[in-house]
Write a structure and sequence with these properties.
The complex is a heterodimer of chains A (about 270) and B (about 300). Chain A has about 270 residues and is mostly helical. Chain A folds into 2 domains: about 50 residues, no CATH class; about 220 residues, MetI-like (MetI-like fold, Orthogonal Bundle). Chain A is built from 14 helices and no strands. The two termini of chain A are about 20 Å apart. Chain B has one domain: MetI-like (MetI-like fold). Chain B contains 14 helices and no strands. In chain B, α2 packs across α13, α3 packs antiparallel against α10 and α7 runs antiparallel to α10. Chain B is globular and about 80 Å long. Classes of the chains: A mainly alpha (about 270), B mainly alpha (about 300).
Chain lengths: ~270, ~300
């Protein structure tokens, strides 16, 4: 057992404070009156106002990008988990020729630089009229969400004991019954973790969204948020406010599923 | 992930045709989607890179030009500068994040109280969308009223105009990237740390080895696989850097912080030169691909591809 030492306690406290500070600063800024925001930065706010939030929702339609992001990330998650789970099961549990190549292929695709495939995706989607639509983002998002999901789920399926399936088959269950009643429930933590990663990567994306959407009705949250910074007139107060709102869903997930995230991050990456 | 799990209960007797059909039925939907949205586009990019295709000049058509786009891409000074920026960003962020991540992992490993809470707190920046990370740090460094300058002035130091200075502009970029991704590195390394047999430290203690010796002789060597994996993931990610730079500096001042992905983006979508941009895309792809392949070859595929075994 390691002796707890006060030195490490100090280091840890300092690190946690340093890590959380920018987050605190962003939240405080989003509530600080504009006149104070650039006058004199102070660590403890003197006045808090909701002006910037009102400006986002009253003067602009900020619900639309929120809804777009939720729908696109949600659909990406659903598709990559359902289709990815089947593929991962085959790769983890069944014997078939070409298995190793398939796994290497999936891993290779997850390392594709997005910029390398975005122009044909743009031309393809334009051809079939899917620019500025939900499927027009969900399909490209599957390029990174699907390999990630498959890769993680292969790890989770392999960790499950083979006896689970054997016992179910012994009891006369069909393959579908075994899958539905035994294996999927047992793999639930893995499915949730993989789904969360798919959601976060889709929620996070900027490069695909900024190229494949151009209408106000179709833009996702990161595009709108970044727009406040990259437009000719930088709207600094809206930057902070919209940024804070865009953080909420992934932070909620991080809070709720900390343990699963850590398990997911380390699965397949480190031998244990 | 350990010993090959005792999976494939029916692996002993070769592959039955029923199992084969099931396997492909399960795998093909996902694989066809990946082929459609990733494999097909990369082949298309390659094809496009062999043509002159300028969306601003549609009357030129789309003639086949062989490798002339590559000749133009590799002959441009801006390409090499952007590649240099990318290499610098990869190396600098890797050094900061691996050392910071190691320190953080060792601190997390020693946390005895409120472990879950501390880990969640440390993990939070990793969950924040890159665009927002870029905005938050830009906000803190924005001159003149930014927090960074207020702190420097308070300490009696000079206050650079961060985003107008070609060298200083890298500081907020690297800090922001480190803030977002060090937690990821730390979590990978923490998992590695926890596999180290604690009795090794006890034995070293008995032999009179100090904390530094223990770190250099036990922790570092045994953590090498985890460091390699974290390093590979991070360098591939840093090589693709786009959002962060685009939102924070726009590649500026001028093109002083422009990475290769941003240069490609500008060629494709602002200058609308699809042929040249596709050639750049293929170069980016090839560099990433051969880098990953090289790392895996060099250090053995075991650490990365054991699942394919």
């Amino acid at each position: 057992m390691r002796r707890p030492s006060w030195r490490w306690a100090v280091v840890t406290t300092a690190i946690v404070a340093a890590v959380l500070f920018p987050l605190y600063w962003a939240v405080i800024s989003s509530f600080t009156p504009e006149s104070r925001l650039f006058a004199a930065p102070s660590l403890v706010p003197e006045a808090l106002v909701l002006d910037h939030y009102r400006a986002l929702f009253d003067a602009r339609d900020f619900w639309t990008p929120i809804r777009n992001s939720l729908i696109v990330a949600g659909m990406t998650t659903l598709l990559s988990v359902t289709l990815g789970a089947g593929c991962a099961y085959a790769l983890a549990r069944l014997q078939f020729p070409g298995k190793a190549v398939t796994l290497a292929f999936v891993l290779a695709v997850s390392m594709f630089p997005q910029i390398s495939i975005v122009s044909p995706l743009y031309l393809m989607l334009r051809e079939v009229g899917l620019l500025n639509t939900y499927p027009g983002l969900v399909l490209p998002y599957l390029t990174f969400a699907m390999p990630l999901t498959i890769w993680m789920l292969v790890g989770f399926f392999r960790q499950l004991p083979a006896e689970l399936e054997e016992a179910a088959f012994m009891d006369g269950a069909s393959w579908f019954q075994m899958m539905w009643r035994v294996l999927l429930p047992a793999a639930m933590p893995g499915l949730i973790a993989a789904g969360m990663f798919a959601f976060m990567t889709a929620w996070n994306d900027y490069l695909f969204a900024v190229i494949l959407t151009s209408t106000t009705a179709a833009k996702t949250l990161p595009v709108v948020v970044a727009g406040f910074a990259t437009d000719v007139t930088t709207e600094r107060t809206l930057m902070a406010t919209s940024g804070v709102l865009a953080i909420i869903p992934p932070l909620l997930l991080a809070f709720l599923f900390q343990r699963l995230i850590i398990q997911g991050l380390t699965s397949g990456a480190v031998k244990d | 992930m350990t010993s090959r799990p005792a999976a494939s209960s029916r692996a002993d007797g070769g592959t039955s045709s029923r199992e084969l059909r099931l396997a492909w039925a399960l795998a093909s939907p996902a694989l066809s989607i990946i082929a459609l949205v990733a494999l097909f586009p990369i082949l298309w990019t390659f094809w496009e890179s062999l043509h002159l295709h300028d969306l601003r000049m549609p009357w030129l058509g789309r003639p086949f030009v062989g490798v002339s786009n590559y000749v133009e891409a590799l002959g441009a000074a801006r390409f090499w500068t952007a590649l240099g920026h990318t290499a610098f960003f990869v190396v600098a962020s890797l050094v900061i994040e691996l050392s910071g991540g190691l320190l953080l992992a060792m601190a997390l490993d020693r946390v005895t109280q409120a472990r879950g809470l501390v880990r969640t707190a440390v993990l939070l920046p990793w969950a924040i969308p890159t665009v927002v990370v870029a905005l938050v740090w830009r906000f803190m460094f924005e001159s003149p009223g930014g927090l960074a300058n207020a702190l420097l002035a308070g300490a009696g130091l000079g206050t650079p105009t961060w985003f107008a200075d070609a060298a200083a502009a890298w500081v907020p970029l690297l800090l922001a990237d480190a803030w977002k991704t060090t937690p990821f590195v730390a979590i990978l390394l923490l998992a590695g740390l926890q596999t180290i047999d604690r009795t090794l430290y006890e034995a070293a203690e008995v032999d009179g080895a100090g904390a530094w010796r223990q770190f250099a002789d036990i922790t570092l060597p045994l953590l090498k696989p985890a460091l390699l994996v974290a390093g590979l993931f991070r360098s591939l990610d840093a090589f693709r850097v786009f959002d962060l730079v685009y939102v924070m500096t726009g590649g500026g001042p001028g093109t002083a912080t422009e990475p290769i992905a941003l240069y490609t983006f500008i060629t494709l979508l602002q200058n609308l030169r699809f042929g040249l941009g596709s050639a750049l895309s293929i170069v980016v792809f090839a560099v990433a691909f051969f880098f990953a392949l090289g790392v895996i070859r060099l250090f053995g595929s075991g650490a990365f591809l054991e699942r394919a075994a």
